[in-house]
Specification:
Blueprint (H helix, E strand, L loop, with lengths): L1 H11 L6 E4 L3 E2 L4 E8 L10 E5 L2 E3 L3 E6 L2 E7 L5 E14 L2 E13 L6 E4 L3 E3 L3 E7 L5 E5 L5 E5 L2 E7 L7 E8 L2 E8 L11 E4 L2 E7 L5 E8 L5 E2 L1 E3 L5 E4 L5 E2 L4 E8 L7 E9 L2 E12 L6 E5 L23 E3 L3 E4 L2 E4 L3 E3 L5 H26 L4 H13 L1
Parallel strand pairs: 2-9, 11-17, 19-27
Antiparallel strand pairs: 1-3, 3-7, 4-5, 4-8, 6-7, 8-9, 10-12, 12-15, 13-14, 16-17, 18-20, 19-28, 20-25, 21-24, 22-26, 23-25, 26-27, 29-32, 30-31
Helix pairs in contact: 1-2
Length: 402
C-alpha cells in the first residue's frame, strides 16, 4: 500500500524531470542513431558538451548535435563493438521542478546483434543550401531503398559508400520535415527561397530574439535598437506588456531615414515560472516583433542573457505570407509549431490566451497524499506500539493475583 501511494505521489508532482531522451534501448553495430532531446533547456547545447562513453571510458564516434524546431537532436554512428554505452550531455542548464539546474544528463543504450545493413551520415539536416548524405551499405549486393525528398521515390545503394545529393531549388520558404532514407527518418530544417523577392522593411529591431536567465534579486535592463532602413521619416508605435516591461524613451513617435533609436527595456518584476513575451514595433500595415524568452533563478551564477540574430534574415517571408501564419499577442502563446519570419516568431497553429498555471493542483494533491501517508504511519505505529510501563505492571499484578 505504501509503495503504491509513493508512486502516485511522484507521478502527481509536476516538473520532476526536465529532459527526455527519445532513443532506443538497443542498436545494431554501425547503426545510425538519432536521438531527440526535449525539455526546458535554458542555454544552447554545443557539440563539446556531447560525450559517448563505454563504461567510464569516452569513445569517439562520428556525431553532431543541433536544435531543430523546439527540440535538440543528436545523431551518431553506433560503435561496431557490442556492449553497453551511455550518451552524456555535460553541464546542460535546464529547468527541473521549476528551477534552473546545471548538471550532466545521460541516457544508456546497448549495441548488440549483427552489423546493420546500411548507415547514414549525417543523421539530421539543417541547411539553406543543397546538401548530400553519405550512405554506407554493409552488404555485398545492391539494395533498393525508398526516399521521400524532393518527392517519393527510390534509390539504389551499392556495396560500400554511396553519396546521395539533394537539391533545395524547389523548396519555398522555411520548412521542418522528416527526410526518409530507407529505415531512417532524419529530422530536417531547410530554408529555401522566398516565394517572391523581398526588400527589407522600413524599420528593423535589433536584436531579433532575447533569451535570458534572470537572477530574481536583480532586475535587468535590455538595450533594444530601432533602425529606419528607409530614406523618409516613418512614424511608429511600440506595444508591450506594461505590467512586465518599462520602456524608455516613450516620447519618440517617428524616425528619420537612416536614424537609430536605442530603447532601454527594463524588467519590472520577476517570478517563479518561465515567461514568453513580445515587444512589437508597429508602422503602417507592418509590425516587427522582438520575442523575449525569460526564465528565473535564485542562483546568481546561473544568470545569463543571449541575444540571437543581431541582424534579421530578410530572405525569410513575412508571417502573413506563410500559409496559416499568425503573430501571437503579448498575452498569447502558440499552441504548436512556430516558424521564423521577418516579423519574428510566426505561429503556424492557434494563438491561445495564457491561463494561470495549474501546477499548484499537482502540489496540493501531493501534499494531501503526504498527510495521508503520515496519518497511516502514526495509526500503524499506535496499534503496534509496546505497552507502557503502567500496563506491564498491571498485567504482572493480575498474573500474581491469579
Amino acid at each position: 500500500m505504501k509503495k503504491i501511494l509513493f508512486v502516485l505521489l511522484i507521478l502527481l508532482i509536476p516538473g520532476c524531470f526536465a529532459l527526455t531522451f527519445d532513443m532506443k534501448e538497443n542498436y545494431a553495430p554501425a547503426e545510425t542513431l538519432v536521438v531527440k532531446i526535449s525539455g526546458n533547456i535554458v542555454e544552447p547545447i554545443n557539440k563539446d558538451q556531447v560525450i559517448f562513453r563505454r563504461g567510464h571510458v569516452a569513445i569517439a564516434p562520428e556525431y553532431d548535435i543541433a536544435r531543430i524546431g523546439e527540440d535538440y537532436f543528436v545523431w551518431a554512428v553506433a560503435p561496431s563493438n557490442a556492449g553497453n554505452y551511455t550518451l552524456v550531455l555535460k553541464d546542460v542548464i535546464a529547468t527541473e521542478a521549476g528551477n534552473a539546474i546545471k548538471k550532466d544528463w545521460e541516457s544508456n543504450f546497448s549495441v548488440s546483434g549483427n552489423i546493420i545493413d546500411y548507415s547514414v551520415n549525417p543523421g539530421f539536416i539543417n541547411t539553406k543550401t543543397d546538401f548530400s548524405i553519405r550512405v554506407v551499405l554493409n552488404e555485398d549486393r545492391d539494395k533498393e531503398v525508398p526516399i521521400n525528398f524532393p518527392g517519393d521515390g527510390t534509390v539504389i545503394l551499392h556495396p560500400g559508400e554511396n553519396i546521395l545529393k539533394f537539391s533545395i531549388s524547389d523548396v519555398k520558404g522555411e520548412i521542418y520535415t522528416n527526410l526518409k532514407i530507407g529505415n531512417y527518418d532524419l529530422p530536417a530544417h531547410i530554408i529555401g527561397k522566398p516565394t517572391r523577392p523581398l526588400s527589407p522593411p522600413l524599420l528593423d529591431v535589433r536584436p531579433a530574439f532575447i533569451e535570458s536567465v534572470i537572477y530574481v534579486s536583480k532586475l535587468p535592463v535590455y538595450p533594444v535598437e530601432i533602425i529606419n532602413l528607409g530614406e523618409s521619416e516613418t512614424p511608429f508605435s511600440v506595444s508591450y506588456d506594461t505590467d512586465l516591461f518599462l520602456v524608455s524613451p516613450v516620447q519618440v513617435e517617428s524616425l528619420k531615414g537612416g536614424e537609430r533609436l536605442v530603447m532601454n527595456v527594463t524588467l519590472k518584476k520577476t517570478g517563479s515560472e518561465a515567461l514568453q513575451r513580445n515587444i512589437t514595433v508597429n508602422y503602417g500595415n507592418y509590425s516587427v516583433v522582438l520575442p523575449f524568452n525569460l526564465r528565473f533563478t535564485s542562483n546568481a551564477s546561473e544568470a545569463s542573457t543571449i541575444s540571437y540574430n543581431t541582424t534579421r534574415n530578410y530572405s525569410l517571408l513575412r508571417c502573413s505570407e506563410i500559409p496559416g501564419g499568425r503573430i501571437c499577442t503579448n498575452v498569447q502563446t502558440c499552441s504548436g509549431t512556430s516558424q521564423n519570419s521577418i516579423d519574428g516568431s510566426c505561429c503556424l497553429s492557434q494563438c491561445i490566451e495564457e491561463t494561470t498555471s495549474r501546477a499548484w493542483i499537482g502540489y496540493s494533491i501531493g501534499g494531501i497524499l503526504i498527510l495521508v501517508l503520515i496519518f497511516i504511519f502514526l495509526k500503524y505505529r499506535k496499534v503496534k506500539a509496546p505497552n507502557t510501563f503502567r500496563d506491564r505492571v498491571l498485567a504482572a499484578d493480575r498474573k500474581f493475583s491469579s
